[in-house]
Amino acid sequence: xSQASASIADxxxxxxxxxxxxxxxxxxxxxxxxxxxxxxxSHDIEELANLGGFLGYDWANYVDCEIEKMQAALDTAEVAK
Length: 81
Prior knowledge:
Blueprint: H1 3-39, H2 45-80
């Protein structure tokens, strides 16, 4: 594996690790919404749901940008062969 390919693979693994962490954060957020619905007075549900929507949108946008960056790097590495 070339150095460029290894670097891209490392970036991809880091993105997967970060994505795993964000998904776990979303799980905790949705559990908080469920608990507030069941046991709370439901004061925070709308704010928690809005936060979840924002985080999902923001992370999807970030991942899209990273995919484009990695694809461009792969394309460049392929041309350099």
